[in-house]
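User: Here's a chain of 92 residues. Predict its fold as tokens.
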Amino acid sequence: MNTVQELRAALRAGHGFPGDAERLAAEQLLRRVPADWLDQADRVGTVVDLVTVAEIVTAYRGRVLLSADSETADAVDQRAGADGEADRSAAE
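Assistant: Prediction complete.
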């Protein structure tokens, strides 16, 4: 995964954790800007902070790689189940 498009494709294919594809799509810094808008600053909006973009991509790439490790994915699933049980018990 060397591009944002490859990362998006991996998340849409089910790699990563539940909700990652939707959360990545919601990241405003990673929205697609048509090439013909680049000379029109008022249409593009703010200047993209490339350090922040790199941090976002690195975090999601790490999540995809973690989910590919079956032991880690199992541990996350078990933790999510335990947290759900605790939430239900607290609500009762």
